[in-house]
Amino acid sequence: MTHLDDELIARAGGTEGADALPAAARAHLDGCAACREQVAGTARLASVLRDADAEAVGETTAPSFDVLIAPALREGAVDSPPMGAAAPAPAALPRRAAKPAMTASWRLTAALVLRQARLLPGLLWPLTAVGFALLLGVVWRAPDPLVGALLFGPGVTLLVTLGALAVCEPRRDPRG
Length: 176
Hints:
By secondary structure, the protein is an all-alpha fold. Helix content is 69%, strand content 0%.
């Protein structure tokens, strides 16, 4: 028999051991020092990897539910409704408190949109508006509403794709 291949060496050096090998491979392993040495090296490597994996799992394992939450439940620190009862609704923010947050988020959104718009070619806006107007005109003039609906989806897709191609053109790259 020729020497053991990598699969048989890995099987013999792994968790299965040499007993998992066919009889002919075990007989070869008993008589071949080179193959025994490779199996022993594979077994040492597998052992080191298992130990390292066990250490890594031990370090990254999150604490269990019982460790984190159960003590608070036993002490009564967490008020929970009885099983099957509806949970109380959270209190709504007063209108005046919510308004500044909404205004700030709208201002941030507007600022982001305007900065992105500056990167687009100037001619893209009017051409897109004309494209949408033409598309709506075609849909409105369609003899059957179903035909108009079928044209609108692909038309919008085509219009947006052409706009993206115009923006992504290498000559229009703002980094250039």
